[in-house]
Amino acid sequence: MIRHITGFSNETVKRVRSLRDKKHRKREGLFLAEGLRILTEAREAGALPEMLFFAHDGAGHPLAQGLIVETERAGGDVIETTPDILSKLSGKDNAQTLIGVYRDRLTSLDQLNRNASGIWIVAQALRDPGNLGTILRTSDAVGGGGLILVDDCVDPFSVEAVRASMGALFTQTIAATRWDSFVAWLRQGPGQLIGTSLRTEIDYQTPRYEAPTFILVGNEAQGLPAAYEQECDLLVKMPMLGKADSLNAAVATAVMAYEVLNQRRAR
Amino acid sequence: MIRHITGFSNETVKRVRSLRDKKHRKREGLFLAEGLRILTEAREAGALPEMLFFAHDGAGHPLAQGLIVETERAGGDVIETTPDILSKLSGKDNAQTLIGVYRDRLTSLDQLNRNASGIWIVAQALRDPGNLGTILRTSDAVGGGGLILVDDCVDPFSVEAVRASMGALFTQTIAATRWDSFVAWLRQGPGQLIGTSLRTEIDYQTPRYEAPTFILVGNEAQGLPAAYEQECDLLVKMPMLGKADSLNAAVATAVMAYEVLNQRRAR
Fold it and tell me: Which of A187 and B57 is assigned the larger pLDDT?
């Protein structure tokens, strides 16, 4: 049954609004995703929201109808509300017409099946939610398995990261751990750990990468700690002809990931 | 001579603060860049600020000293101020300790030397300042000549775009024009226009690209208009194995630009 909420001070509205803060997301184990496109990607990846908010104008699209029906059928809470309340929930003036509340999707390393894909991304102390979401989107595009977050990374379930992932958040396995735990896990099975670095002469197109390849990307400002580079099976560098001698972290990850993919695909 | 400003209501502070708005940037032909790293990149690319703000704590670094001395020598206005006023200028709580005000750097197409580089990026209706800055940074890395903005793009001199470019804004030629004018200019000389598209079967690693290559990237949400795709000499697609079937615009540009670079470089 569809509930109707029109009051700003409604308890459900307040609670969902609070999911814009990491503290509340963590406590509730829930996060927000916005917009027909991302919610549809989620559904296609098998994820339905626990709560689905829509405004009257947003319900007309067949995909929106499908989401509403399926969310109800799965026992989710479907709520018709006003555009103003949607704006309040999303924190944007021009809100999306659909907002979903999802159970968070963190996987523990011992549940992660490394052989599910030949490409995995490992991010260390990544700080920008846009970069994190963009890396998830790239990982989806190259057929990667997912993203392993090491050390103190930005929350992958922040509204900005979810938005930048364009739905790839729901297709990708996401784990969060510490460096030592990651290395211990990695060395229990097959896997080549590749770091990009300026401290090597090996061009990134020279080695033949072995699957599963774990591409390690460092913090936006600091890059990888030296000790982490030493743990890598291989350090490679991308050509940089410019003066700035650096690439955006999500861009460097993508250039590397497409090289690994290109080595393996039939053309 | 170094001026000292400590008052929030100082006219210079107000004027520089107003450069955070596009309207004022356009009227004054000036923009803001922040932080020792970006200002140093600018200086190495031959650009000194017309005004340079620093707080006492930020002046100790030899590179900061160099900037202060050279800006004064070039007749720039060097201003020592407080961390609070720097925060006000930058709009961030945790402001950079150096802020420069630069003359904007738009080039007209008829002044652009297409043979200066084998790779150029052309962006159409790009809306995200982070993407724009990231594309400039990538263009710098691949030895590209610069960025041609077509139709209604985000302002390349916005604080966010300047920040994301990490200084590449100062190494790259930037032009802004309309589509018809761009095409007319392009066809007056050598140049291959390459669009990435889902409406083609040609893999992006199949063609040998001809220099100068103009890589055309479309709006984040809409992609390229069909008429623009038809004008391309070649449409190519990147493999996308995932469910989302899309890449971030700056990522797609980078993967494409590295392919062009890789075809040309000696390894």
Answer: A187
What count of other Cβ atoms lies within 10 Å of the Cβ of residue B23?
Answer: 9
Same domain, A118 and A90: no
Instruction: Give me the pLDDT at residue A244, please.
Output: 72
B206 interaction partners in chain A (CB closer than 8 Å): 267
A134 and B248: CB-CB below 8 Å? Answer: yes
Indicate the pLDDT class of residue A59, thresholds 50, 70 and 90.
confident
Task: Compute the C-alpha angle A225/B262/B252, nearest 5°.
Answer: 75
B155: contact with A, CB 8 A cutoff: no
User: Distance (Å, rounded) from C-alpha A93 to C-alpha A95?
Assistant: 6
Sign of the CA dihedral running B133, B147, A139, A52: positive
Would you call A37 an interface residue with chain B, using a CB distance cutoff of 8 Å? no
- Closest among B205, B261, B193 to B237, alpha carbons compared: B205
Q: What percent of chain B has pLDDT over 70?
A: 98
Expressed as residue numbers, the domain containing B24 is 3-104
> Which residues from chain B sit within 8 angstroms of residue A167, using beta carbons?
243-244
The dihedrals phi and psi of A220, each to the nearest 5 degrees, come to: -55, -40
Q: What is the ipTM of this complex?
A: 0.93
Mean pLDDT for B155-179 is 95
The mean pLDDT value for B138-146 works out to 97
User: Best residue in A166, A248, A261 to probe B by mutation, most B CBs within 10 Å?
Assistant: A248
pLDDT tens for residues B52-64? Answer: 999 887 778 899 9
Q: Of all residues in chain A, what percent carry a pLDDT higher than 70?
A: 98
Query: What are the pLDDT digits (tens) for B74-119?
Result: 999 999 999 899 988 887 766 668 999 999 989 999 999 999 999 9
Mutate to test the interface with A, among B258, B261, B263 (most CBs of A within 10 A): B258
* pLDDT reading at A95 higher than 70: no
A23 touches chain B (CB under 8 A): no
Of A143, A167, A255, the CB nearest to B241: A143
Q: Is A41 part of the contact surface with chain B (CB cutoff 8 Å)?
A: yes
- Cβ A143–B265 below 8 Å, yes or no? no
Q: Are residues A19 and A93 in the same domain?
A: yes
CATH number at A7 reads 3.30.1330.30
Give me A224's structure tokens.
């990888």
Q: Out of A104, A123, A152, pick the residue that ends a domain.
A: A104
Check whether residue A32 and residue A75 sit in a common domain. Answer: yes
Which one, of B182, B194, B174, lies nearest residue B259 by Cα? B194
Which residue in A135, A203, A237, A251 has the most chain B C-beta atoms within 10 A of its own C-beta, making it the best mutation to test that interface? A251
pLDDT per position as a tens digit, A37-51: 999 999 999 999 999
From B130, which residue of chain A is nearest by alpha-carbon distance? A130
Cβ neighbours for B112, distance < 8 A, ≥ 6 positions apart: B145, B146, B148, B173, B175
A122 and A15 in a single domain? The answer is no
